[in-house]
Design the sequence.
């Protein structure tokens, strides 16, 4: 499995209590994998009244679920492949998530330009969008509309003008994938699940030919044990074949790698999500505050999923495609961050981008059920279908058949907000007045935690220094770090800067100071020694350096279109 830097044991007792449950209890369901699918299964199972444990070898959303394009969408392009059921399901789930987690999933415009050399004619695209609107039904966000070339040029001034014919706008949604996954996992714990990060599944326990538990190793304490369960569910994403190998089962995946690059908004500024046609794969330019990120690629991948990085060919491909679609000249020196993830696609012939994004549920050997494939958008319905399958098939072995699924009506923590715009209009001035918070910090608190922002601020009572930003102009406060350690199972510096916040990806301005301050707060919260704090800083900087692995393949002094001078880029500049 993946290799992780060993965190130290936190001072809080919550983790110890959950580990005690692994040793002591026999669960209805044991889930292997703490990505969005596994977290969704744990939450749904706990809400049905089933006892459930979840083991994640790294941090929640360490793998694919924290390395996506962050789109919550139906997938218009899948209509071309007649994957109507998949699109309908994704559009329905998009609607559910916008209602259940409005602070984490927000509508965002999608702008589709049409050029003379576009693959599809305006008529074909209009027909597809009409079908798209109809499939969304009552959970839709509004209908598409056509845009003239002149209006497109005004809306997106950097868009290539040559050959621009017209375009369409339609609504989709964006999220912070790692925060969404974490929120689902924490909700599962709140509902009674024993969900733990940094607990690695090392083997499967069998009794009379049936899988009856999971052998595990606590990455933090080093303890080994076996958690027993009536049914074991593998939701291990790109590690699915490794879990299946523990049971002697054959491989079913065709993993593919997708990378994203982050550039300053000063170099590429879009006002909507803009697709970039490049060969068989569609890239997207997505605005994110003071930055724009671009991705994703789709290439076959045979390495360790947790070690995937953006290499020079990947980055050059993305920059070249972007320079062709926009009137910009992006170079390697413009890239301030990258990320790479591995998709757990099913084995299928053809180009990687043509492999279906659907999911499958398989049983075997007895006692083990595997779910793999799918999309970030459809995690909730995937969990519902998986648990319906398990209850139908294994119900007599479970302590209860459980109640009906209600994850489609129960808001995620912080998400009980009927009208987010009105809520923000009411609460933001009060936060700034009562707590003297900068506007961007107050807004971030609400956008990340919703109605639970008050619980975060409560951690600063008596400690006013925690209300200071980690660095001048940084929207993340010391109390955000404190809360992550005390209540969000953060155990490493990377957990905080990459997944509890996204400063590792979008915080290049003053981020060295923010990193040092975050380490200082974590050291106090988790009881780190000076040596441990230095080790955490060194490990984090090494992780940041791996984001720039593509530089090692660049020729010094290269100044071509996707080039620049790699010598001026240092990982420490962005950490």
Sequence:
């Amino acid at each position: 499995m993946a290799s992780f830097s060993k965190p130290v044991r936190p001072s809080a007792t919550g983790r110890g209590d959950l580990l005690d449950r692994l040793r002591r209890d026999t669960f209805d369901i044991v889930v292997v994998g703490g990505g969005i699918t596994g977290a969704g299964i744990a939450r749904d199972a706990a809400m049905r009244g089933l006892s459930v444990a979840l083991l994640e070898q790294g941090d929640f959303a360490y793998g694919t679920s924290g390395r996506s394009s962050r789109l919550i969408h139906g997938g218009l392009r899948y209509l071309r492949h007649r994957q109507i059921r998949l699109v309908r399901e994704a559009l329905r789930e998009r609607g559910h998530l916008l209602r259940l987690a409005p602070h984490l999933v927000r509508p965002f415009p999608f702008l589709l330009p049409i050029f003379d050399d576009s693959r599809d004619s305006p008529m074909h695209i209009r027909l597809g969008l009409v079908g798209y609107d109809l499939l969304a039904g009552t959970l839709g966000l509004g209908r598409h509309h056509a845009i003239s070339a002149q209006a497109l040029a005004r809306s997106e001034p950097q868009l290539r003008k040559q050959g621009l014919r017209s375009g369409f706008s339609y609504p989709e949604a964006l999220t912070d994938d790692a925060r969404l996954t974490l929120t689902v996992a924490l909700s599962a714990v709140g509902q009674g699940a024993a969900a733990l990060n940094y607990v690695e599944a090392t083997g499967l326990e069998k009794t009379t030919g049936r899988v009856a538990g999971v052998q595990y190793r606590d990455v933090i304490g080093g303890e080994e044990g076996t958690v027993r369960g009536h049914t074991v569910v593998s939701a291990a994403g790109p590690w699915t074949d490794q879990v299946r190998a523990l049971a002697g089962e054959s491989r079913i995946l065709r993993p593919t790698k997708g990378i994203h690059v982050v550039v300053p908004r000063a170099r590429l500024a879009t006002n909507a999500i803009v697709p970039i046609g490049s060969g068989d794969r569609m890239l997207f330019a997505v605005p994110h505050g003071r930055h724009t990120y671009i991705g994703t690629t789709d290439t076959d991948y045979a390495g360790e999923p947790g070690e995937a990085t953006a290499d020079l060919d990947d980055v050059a491909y993305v920059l070249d495609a972007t320079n062709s679609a926009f009137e910009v000249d992006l170079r390697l020196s413009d890239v301030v961050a990258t990320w790479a993830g591995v998709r757990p696609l099913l084995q299928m012939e053809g180009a990687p981008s043509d492999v279906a994004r659907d999911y499958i549920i398989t049983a075997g050997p007895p006692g083990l059920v595997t779910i793999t494939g799918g999309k970030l958008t459809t995690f909730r319905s995937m969990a519902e279908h998986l648990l319906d399958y398990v209850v139908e098939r294994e119900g007599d072995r479970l302590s209860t058949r459980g109640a009906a699924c209600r994850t489609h009506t129960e808001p995620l923590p912080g998400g009980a907000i009927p009208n987010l715009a009105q809520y923000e209009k009411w609460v933001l001035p009060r936060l700034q007045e009562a707590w003297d918070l900068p506007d961007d910090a107050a807004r971030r608190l609400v956008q990340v935690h919703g109605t639970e922002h008050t619980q975060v601020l409560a951690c600063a009572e008596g400690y006013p220094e925690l209300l200071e930003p980690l660095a001048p102009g940084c929207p993340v406060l010391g109390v955000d770090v404190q809360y992550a350690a005390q209540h969000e199972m953060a155990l490493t510096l990377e957990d905080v800067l990459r997944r509890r916040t996204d400063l590792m990806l979008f915080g290049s301005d003053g981020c060295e100071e923010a990193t040092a301050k975050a380490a200082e707060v974590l050291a106090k919260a988790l009881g780190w020694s000076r040596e441990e704090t230095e080790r955490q800083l060194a490990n984090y900087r090494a992780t940041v350096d791996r984001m720039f692995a593509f530089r090692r393949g660049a020729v010094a002094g290269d100044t071509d279109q996707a080039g620049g001078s790699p010598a001026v880029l240092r990982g420490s500049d962005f950490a």
